[in-house]
What does this fold into?
Amino acid sequence: GRPVRYRSRGSCGSHSSGCAHGLPRHSSCEIMTERPFRVLFVCTGNTCRSPLAEAIARRELGKRGWAGVVEVASAGVAAGEGQGASDGSRIVAQEADLDLTEHRSRLLTREMALEADLILGMSGSHVARVVALTEDAKVALLGDFAHDTPLGGPSVPDPFGGPVEFYRETYHALEGLVNRSLDRLPRPLDVGEDRS
It folds into this structure.
């Protein structure tokens, strides 16, 4: 496909942790790629939090007209391959007009981590696991990235095994964090611009 260019909303200096807009370990906010910008959400089992984050992000990308230039996926650091989303996640997804019936869990691999342009973990342990797989990964805690803080952003509580109300709380937390995170991505130039 044609190259998709991403440009920051402002100037960006040199930062040891990455660009000023929060992309870990990128020294520049301008990214040239021959493929979509890939965001990977990571939790433990890839049956609760990260599938919800992926579904929320995919819906929001459609609203923004970014489908095809930003791609989202999910995986788990201790996932069993091929499991469906948890009952609680499917229920709250359906309440929000999202569909997780086709979701199947995936175990995070080094190859997945290297292919992603940005990995967002639900907790510090997920970030640590990504770094253990490869120090070259561009990874951040979802709460840190969403709130533009180097440390101290909120982790997303794991609702696994709890009542459906826990899943609703997780969903609402994810909805805000995912939308803030998408706001902080480099702006794709091929979207909504007259290129003639």
